[in-house]
Design goal:
The protein is mainly alpha-helical. It is built from four helices and no strands. It comes from Saccharomycodes ludwigii.
Length: 159
C-alpha cells in the first residue's frame, strides 16, 4: 500500500495561495455586485466607490503588483511613521499624566493649607475666649465680640 499523501501539503505552495487569493477576490467582487444589484432593485441609492472597492473590483492592480523590494520600502516607511506617531502619543500621555499629577498635588496642598488656617483660627478664637481676669473670671469683651462676628457672618440676620 503506498503512503498517503497529506491533503494539506498543497496549501503551502505559492500556486495554491495565488489561486486562493484570486478565488477570494472574485468571490468578494461577485458578492459586492449582487449587493449593489439588490440595492438598485429595492430603490436605495448606490454608494460611491471607495479605494477598497476599486481594489476588490480589480481596477487598482498597480498597488497589488508591487515588487518585494517596493513592499519592504513601503512597509518600512509606514512602520517609521507609526513609530513616530506612537512616540508622540506616548509623550502626550506622559505630559497629561504629569499635568494631572501636578493638579492633584496643588489641590491637596490647598486643602491642607485651608485646614491649617481653619485650625489656627479655631486656636486663636479659643485663646480669646479663654482669657481671664486676675481673679479668674472670664473676660466678657472677647465673648461679646465673638457673638457679634457670628451675627454679622450669619445670613439669617443680614437679609
Amino acid at each position: 500500500m503506498p503512503p498517503k499523501k497529506s491533503l494539506n501539503a498543497k496549501k503551502f505552495t505559492r500556486e495554491y495561495k495565488l489561486k486562493e487569493i484570486q478565488r477570494n477576490l472574485t468571490r468578494k467582487s461577485r458578492l459586492k455586485k449582487q449587493y449593489l444589484k439588490a440595492l438598485k432593485e429595492e430603490g436605495y441609492a448606490i454608494p460611491q466607490n471607495t479605494e477598497s472597492d476599486e481594489h476588490l473590483d480589480g481596477k487598482n492592480t498597480a498597488t497589488a503588483k508591487l515588487t518585494g523590494r517596493d513592499r519592504k520600502v513601503i512597509k518600512r516607511q509606514n512602520s517609521e511613521l507609526k513609530y513616530e506617531e506612537k512616540k508622540k502619543l506616548k509623550q502626550e500621555r506622559l505630559y497629561k499624566k504629569r499635568q494631572d499629577r501636578e493638579f492633584k498635588r496643588e489641590k491637596e496642598l490647598n486643602r491642607i493649607k485651608e485646614i491649617k488656617s481653619k485650625h489656627q483660627t479655631k486656636i486663636d478664637r479659643r485663646e480669646k475666649l479663654a482669657q481671664r481676669t486676675k481673679t479668674g473670671q472670664p473676660l466678657m469683651g472677647p465673648r461679646i465680640e465673638d457673638l457679634l462676628n457670628k451675627i454679622k457672618n450669619d445670613d439669617t440676620y443680614t437679609n
